[in-house]
């Protein structure tokens, strides 16, 4: 991956953002949002997107001052080696556990919904094998693949949502405030880390053709993904009603089982491959980011060599929990709640430090320019 | 296997390095310059050419009329234009009356070049030219008289199209270049000759438009050609394999075509085309996936028809790769997808078939490939008969004997037939081979395996490049271009040369109006 | 050297994957396709409480195909009944008598005997359908009058020899004509979980006890006198479920009326007769088409809550037995409209009364409209639709417009013909 010095364009960057964050609507995220807010899950989804504007804005502000540096380098610059590395370590830990928990969830989806008798470790192994291959090819390739397949993945998603809207009853989203306004705000704030991926996109900021593209791409991605997630939660509520929705873990897969297209009664296998494609791309990128961050912290230049080790580690930790459907579900909820303050806090901290420390330097720079 | 082959190669190289007494003597002779005495030269050349035994090397001694200067004309009669030599060389020499005239002034040929040493002279003789040596001259005169026998320009055989030009390249490089020059009447088109092999002296002509093609690209191709160290590279298909980056990859990275119109249009876009003697074809580089996917006909047909063909071809490509694999995956892993009547029908036909579905499919696929290969080799008069026997009788009998279920025949035949819609021979093989890989993947993990394999394939495809050009560009990574990928645009809208070639002039001026 | 190692490793990985794969792999012909599952009570004894008898209706794939060599004298279907604790573990027990693996791929119907459906343990049993991956959410839940094993024994369709076709077509057509409700198992779960409305399932019977008193669609399965050489199984009427337990039945007519009052528009082809206002002896054939959604107004703040519903219907008059020529004049049309409106409103309000008094619940799924009136789920749950509905004041209006009056709009005057 180091050999390719080419940068990724705005299309590829956006495609990665769409697929990594957007795919969350097809796992247990909607259930997490709905469990307390009931019919108002979609408002909570919208709220998380809106709250996310703050950290994303601050991150872009900070990065725009240090163009050409990635998130890690900015951290080191702002906080010095010790604290900077410490924060980076925390971020790495979060990314790594998110990778493990999320991939375990996706394995669980495949295992419980589609391949019931295949051992989870085999499914996990294949998943990680493919993602390691993808991550090893490099960011440019991940971006290209994401862009090439984005259209088809989103089209099928659109069809699913359309059928869900059509097959369900719009009145199911009433009462409008569901579990109550307090619950909505609570869910919106604790689950805001759904969009924490955007923080990690800061790592690849210098690899996007221009900072302008990065900025534009980030905003478009945030907007689209928020709308997507909102529409999806709405569609699931309409199709399944909140009573059923909060009982099931993977509403997307439940929804595609409920779709009939003409004479075809079981079409989930038509949508499954596209969902899988998104999954593979998503975890390829996560793997890439985790090893990249790892490489930066521990000063490993050829960080692609670490990939197989990381992937193996993920499989063995991810496979460990018993009754994954429940354990991991709870783990993820806990993780999301823990990460939320970090997601909001770190960019704030960076921005403030940047203002205090870099204020004078930047003014000098401005004068020069 | 690889190891053994490698050993053989290595040992061959070693043998060559050992000094051979015969060779070194000959080498010395070749290095020497041409002498002023004709007789000495003649005896030397006779020795080199083994003359009494070697039948078609002719030595014609002439005494120039008027000056009585002794001359000798040396040529290989089978590859030279003998009547021309008689008329324009021997006749003027013999009939000459003036004493003072030097030999070159007497000859009535269009072009005379000079060779100072034997090495050059020999090379020219081998190329079909005649050498005239004269007493008192320390250079040999080269008279262009090459006349290799070759086919006339014929119709295209493999890349058949209905609408558009029908001419094909022939085995003569000169003719091929002339076919290209006919299409590109442009003073900037350069025909550069590069020698690519030592012993057989094969040469390849590199064609490009000087003020379009990227300098770096030209340099890259030229370097690659010059750095080849093979004794003989007879023709382009062999050269293609020497030039490729990834030699065992399933994906071709150099486009091979027998159509001059196609080659010409690529030259116009800033690509480089290689033409060579003995090859009724040309190599185009760099090549993207799309160039293998396209045929020229789609641009000759009107816009909707051309795109309809494209849509058919992309469908055919997918059916061909996935049909059998999807059948295996669905019947083995996801049978709930099949509509009830069909499911029962398949189950009932399989009731007496002794093999698992994947074995059945693999058997049938193998049979289809065998029939196809055999059909290609059988003499043409009985070809069609074999095809019918193979396809109809074998299939029918296999079904009746409960070896194969009829649905499998439909699936495999569909996949096999649609593969013919992919006209490029290399891509065709790619499709046929990946099909087997997909069948195995779906046999192991159903749709999951297929999708996993598919994304690995896509990751691999985006990582390939042909002479530095990403394989799937301009789709991704995005470049400024005419966007002629799966579908083509209106001709007026195809304004740009492909940006991934970094041409010197990206805009096609003709369309500005 | 390194490269070769990589190749070998790659080869090893792929070979292991190939050999190790195939866990979920099943050959098609090695499975027995269950078309319908029948559930009934194992017995009344104390030790039988948790037990049920599971009946499988298995299709024979070889019947009805043109493939050569298929033995055509085999029966098209096969039934077997086994005692089990649920229909998940019964799959293995069935293998005691069947060589093939039991597959629910083609399972589209779950038939429950009325006796079991009325049992309080029924909900616990049927919830297994939610757990099993192979049971589709669109499976139809139908209730049979007799025991399930009896039902399958009697039911021998003659024209649709392939059993899945029979159930598919019977249910599909039944839903279109409105004589049975669309009773997908997912709505059963949804309605039971929401605990606000009543669920109706299709009602069927393979035994005939003709009831000649009734006319037209005022029957329930088993009562319609049918003669001829046809299979005697009937699908008409519905079984009413409250909180996952069957509590009552509706006739074909009531089922149709329920269909008209509900939000869904599954019912597309209602042909029925109404009394002729011109001459009480005759009945007019009409086609009823609900062309848009009902208008539902609610006032839930007051006590008792008030609900007003307007049912828009387009009626095509297909016969004119009294030869009155209703389509001919405005006056006649209005007369007919008023008569029909009165008739329908009578019937609608009667059904609502039945729903409120007899079933003590909402047959029509109006809780959905009610949800709009609340701000949060808590308020809505506190209101408790299930409890409040029976107390509500409900008024139903029919809004009738006429479509065509048959192919030939005018009829001759009776006296003209008689002359």
Written as H for each helix and E for each strand, in order along the chain, the element string of chain C is HEEEHEEHHHEHHHEEEHEEEEHHHHEH
The 3D shape of chain C can be described as globular
**Number of self-contained structural domains of chain B:** 3
Overall pLDDT level of chain B: 85
Q: Let me know the number of strands of chain B.
A: 12
Largest sheet of chain C: 9 strands, mixed
Number of helices of chain C: 14
Number of E strands of chain C: 14
Give the terminus-to-terminus CA distance of chain C: 111 Å
Helix tally of chain B equals: 18
Helix-and-strand structural type of chain C: alpha/beta
Estimate what percentage of residues of chain C fall within beta strands: 15-25%
Q: Uncertain segments of chain B of ≥5 residues (pLDDT<50)?
A: 8-17
Assembly state (oligomeric): heterotrimer
Order the strands across the largest sheet of chain B as they lie in space.
1-2-4-5-3
Structural class of chain B comes to alpha+beta
**Most strands sheet of chain B:** 5 strands, antiparallel
Give the fraction of residues assigned to helices of chain B. 40-55%
Structural summary, described in words:
The complex is a heterotrimer of chains A (369), B (513) and C (419). Chain A is mainly alpha-helical. Chain A has helices spanning 10-22, 29-37, 41-65, 71-114, 120-137, 139-167, 181-190, 197-201, 211-245, 251-257, 268-297, 307-318, 324-368. Chain A has a single domain (10-360), classed as Amino acid/polyamine transporter I, CATH 1.20.1740.10. Chain A contains 13 helices and no strands. Chain B has 3 domains: 21-143, no CATH class; 173-287, no CATH class; 301-469, no CATH class. In chain B, 48% of the residues lie in helices and 11% in strands. Chain B has 18 helices and 12 strands. Chain B has helices at 2-17, 21-31, 38-49, 82-95, 103-106, 118-126, 173-183, 215-226, 236-243, 260-268, 289-293, 297-300, 303-333, 340-350, 357-377, 383-400, 406-418, 425-463, and strands spanning 57-63, 70-76, 112-115, 130-134, 140-143, 189-195, 203-209, 255-257, 272-276, 282-285, 465-466, 469-470. In chain B, strand 4 (130-134) and strand 5 (140-143) form a beta hairpin. The longest helix of chain B is centred in the last third of the chain and has 39 residues, at 425-463. In chain C, strands 1, 2, 3, 4, 5, 6, 7, 8 and 9 form a 9-stranded mixed β-sheet that branches. In chain C, strands 10, 11, 12, 13 and 14 form a 5-stranded mixed β-sheet that branches. Chain C has 2 domains: 27-265, no CATH class; 269-419, 2-Layer Sandwich (GMP Synthetase, Chain A, domain 3), CATH 3.30.300. Chain C is globular. The model of chain C has no long low-confidence stretch (mean pLDDT 79). Chains A and C meet through helix 5 and helix 9 of A and helix 1, helix 8, helix 11 and helix 12 of C.
């Amino acid at each position: 991956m180091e050999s390719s010095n080419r940068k990724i364009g705005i299309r590829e960057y956006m495609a990665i953002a769409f697929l990594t964050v957007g795919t969350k609507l097809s796992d247990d995220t909607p259930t997490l949002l709905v469990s307390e807010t009931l019919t108002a899950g979609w408002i909570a989804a919208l709220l998380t997107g809106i709250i996310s504007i703050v950290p994303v804005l601050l991150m872009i502000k900070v990065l725009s001052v240090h163009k050409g540096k990635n998130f890690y380098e900015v951290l080191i610059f702002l906080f010095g080696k010790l604290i900077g590395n410490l924060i980076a370590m925390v971020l790495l830990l979060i990314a790594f556990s998110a990778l493990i928990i999320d991939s375990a969830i996706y394995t669980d989806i495949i295992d419980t919904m589609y391949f019931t008798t295949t051992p989870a470790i085999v499914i996990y192994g294949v998943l990680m094998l493919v993602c390691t291959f993808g991550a090893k090819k490099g960011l440019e390739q991940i971006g290209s693949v994401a862009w090439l397949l984005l259209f088809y993945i989103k089209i099928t998603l659109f069809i699913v949502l359309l059928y869900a809207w059509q097959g369900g009853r719009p009145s199911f989203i009433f009462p409008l405030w569901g579990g109550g306004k307090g619950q909505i705000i609570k869910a919106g704030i604790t689950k805001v880390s759904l969009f924490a991926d955007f923080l990690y996109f800061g790592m690849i900021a210098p690899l996007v053709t221009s900072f302008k593209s990065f900025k534009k791409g980030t905003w478009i991605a945030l907007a689209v993904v928020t709308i997507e997630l909102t529409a999806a939660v709405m569609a699931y509520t309409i199709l399944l009603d909140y009573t059923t929705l909060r009982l099931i873990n993977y509403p997307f897969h439940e929804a595609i089982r409920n779709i009939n297209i003409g004479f075809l009664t079981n079409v989930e296998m038509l949508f499954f491959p596209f969902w899988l494609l998104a999954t593979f791309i998503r975890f390829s990128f996560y793997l890439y980011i985790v090893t990249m961050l790892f490489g930066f912290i521990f000063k490993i230049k050829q960080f692609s060599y670490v990939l197989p080790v990381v992937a193996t580690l993920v499989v063995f930790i991810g496979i460990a929990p018993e009754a994954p459907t429940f354990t991991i579900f709870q783990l993820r909820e806990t993780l999301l709640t823990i990460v939320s303050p970090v997601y909001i806090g770190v960019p704030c901290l960076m921005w403030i430090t940047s203002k205090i420390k870099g204020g004078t330097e930047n003014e000098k720079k401005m004068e020069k320019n | 296997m690889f190891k053994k082959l490698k050993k053989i190669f290595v040992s061959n190289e070693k043998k060559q390095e050992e000094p051979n007494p015969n060779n070194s003597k000959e080498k010395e002779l070749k290095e020497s310059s041409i002498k002023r005495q004709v007789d000495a030269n003649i005896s030397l050349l006779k020795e080199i050419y083994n003359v009494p035994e070697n039948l078609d090397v002719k030595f014609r001694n002439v005494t120039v009329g008027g000056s009585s200067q002794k001359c000798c004309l040396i040529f290989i009669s089978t590859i030279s234009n003998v009547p021309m030599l008689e008329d324009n060389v021997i006749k003027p020499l013999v009939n000459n009356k003036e004493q003072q005239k030097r030999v070159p002034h007497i000859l009535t040929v269009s072009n005379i070049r000079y060779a100072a040493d034997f090495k050059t002279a020999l090379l020219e003789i081998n190329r079909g030219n005649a050498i005239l040596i004269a007493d008192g001259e320390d250079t040999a005169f080269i008279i262009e008289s090459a006349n290799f026998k070759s086919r006339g320009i014929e119709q295209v055989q493999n890349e058949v199209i209905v609408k558009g030009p029908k001419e094909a390249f022939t085995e003569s490089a000169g003719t091929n270049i002339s076919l290209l020059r006919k299409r590109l009447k442009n003073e900037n088109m350069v025909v550069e000759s590069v020698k690519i092999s030592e012993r057989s002296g094969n040469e390849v002509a590199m064609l490009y438009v000087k003020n379009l093609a990227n300098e770096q690209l030209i340099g890259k191709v030229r370097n690659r050609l010059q750095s080849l160290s093979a004794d003989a590279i007879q023709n382009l298909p062999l050269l293609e394999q020497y030039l490729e980056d990834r030699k065992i990859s399933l994906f071709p990275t150099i486009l091979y075509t027998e159509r001059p119109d196609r080659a010409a249009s690529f030259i116009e876009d800033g690509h480089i085309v290689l033409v060579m003697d003995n090859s009724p074809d040309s190599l185009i580089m760099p090549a993207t996936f799309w160039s293998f996917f396209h045929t020229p006909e789609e641009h000759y047909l009107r816009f909707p028809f051309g795109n309809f063909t494209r849509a058919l071809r992309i469908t055919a490509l997918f059916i061909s790769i996935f049909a059998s694999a999807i059948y295996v995956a669905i019947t083995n892993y996801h049978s709930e997808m099949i509509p009830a009547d069909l499911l029962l029908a398949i189950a009932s036909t399989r009731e007496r078939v002794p093999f698992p579905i994947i074995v059945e499919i693999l058997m049938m696929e193998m049979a289809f490939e065998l029939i196809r290969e055999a059909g290609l080799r059988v003499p043409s008069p009985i070809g069609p008969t074999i095809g019918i026997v193979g396809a109809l009788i074998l299939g029918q009998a296999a079904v009746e004997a409960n070896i194969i279920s009829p649905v499998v025949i439909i699936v495999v035949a569909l996949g096999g037939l649609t593969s013919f819609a992919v006209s490029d021979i290399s891509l065709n093989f790619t499709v046929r081979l990946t099909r087997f890989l997909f069948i195995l993947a779906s046999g192991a993990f159903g749709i999951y395996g297929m999708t996993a394999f598919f994304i690995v394939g896509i990751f691999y495809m985006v990582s390939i490049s042909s002479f530095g050009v990403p394989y799937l560009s301009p789709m991704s990574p995005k470049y400024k271009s005419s966007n002629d990928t799966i579908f083509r645009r209106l001709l007026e809208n195809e304004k740009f040369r492909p940006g991934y070639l970094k041409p010197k002039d990206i805009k096609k001026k003709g369309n500005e109006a | 050297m390194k490269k070769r190692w990589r190749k070998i490793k790659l080869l090893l990985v792929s070979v292991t994957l190939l050999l190790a794969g195939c866990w979920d792999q099943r050959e098609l012909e090695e499975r027995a396709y269950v078309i319908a599952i029948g559930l009934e009570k194992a017995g009344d004894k104390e030790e039988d409480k948790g037990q049920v008898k599971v009946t499988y209706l298995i299709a024979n794939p070889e019947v009805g195909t043109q493939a050569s060599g298929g033995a055509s004298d085999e029966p098209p279907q096969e039934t077997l009944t086994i005692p089990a604790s649920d229909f998940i573990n019964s799959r293995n027990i069935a293998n005691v008598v069947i060589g093939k693996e039991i597959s629910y791929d083609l399972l589209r119907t779950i038939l429950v005997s009325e006796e079991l459906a009325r049992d309080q343990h029924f909900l616990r049993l049927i919830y297994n359908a939610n757990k099993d991956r192979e049971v589709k959410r669109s499976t139809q839940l139908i209730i049979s009058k007799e025991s399930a094993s009896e039902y399958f024994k009697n039911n021998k369709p003659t024209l649709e020899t392939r059993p899945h076709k029979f159930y598919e077509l019977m249910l599909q057509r039944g839903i279109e004509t409105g004589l049975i409700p669309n009773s997908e198992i997912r709505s059963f779960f949804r309605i039971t979980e929401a605990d606000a409305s009543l669920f109706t399932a299709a009602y069927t019977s393979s035994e005939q006890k003709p009831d000649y008193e009734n006319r037209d669609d005022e029957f329930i399965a088993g009562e319609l006198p049918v003669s001829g050489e046809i299979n005697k199984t009937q699908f008409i009427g519905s079984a009413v479920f409250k909180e996952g337990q069957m509590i009552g039945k509706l006739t074909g007519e009531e089922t149709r009326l329920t269909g008209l009052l509900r939000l869904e528009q599954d019912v597309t082809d209602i042909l029925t007769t109404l009394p002729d206002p011109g001459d009480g002896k005759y009945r007019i054939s009409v086609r009823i088409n609900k062309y848009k959604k009902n208008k539902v107004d609610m006032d839930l703040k007051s006590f008792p809550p008030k609900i007003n519903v307007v049912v828009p219907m387009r009626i095509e008059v297909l016969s004119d037995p009294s030869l009155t020529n209703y389509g001919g004049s405005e006056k006649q049309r209005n007369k007919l409209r008023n008569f029909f409106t009165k008739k329908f409103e009578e019937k609608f309000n009667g059904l609502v009364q039945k729903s409120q008094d007899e079933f003590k619940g909402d047959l029509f799924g109006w809780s959905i409209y009610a949800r709009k009136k609340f701000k949060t789920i808590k308020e809505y749950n506190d209101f408790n639709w299930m409890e409040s509905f029976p107390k509500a004041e409900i008024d139903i209006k029919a809004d009738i417009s006429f479509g065509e009056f048959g192919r030939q709009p005018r009829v001759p005057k009776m006296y003209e013909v008689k002359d």
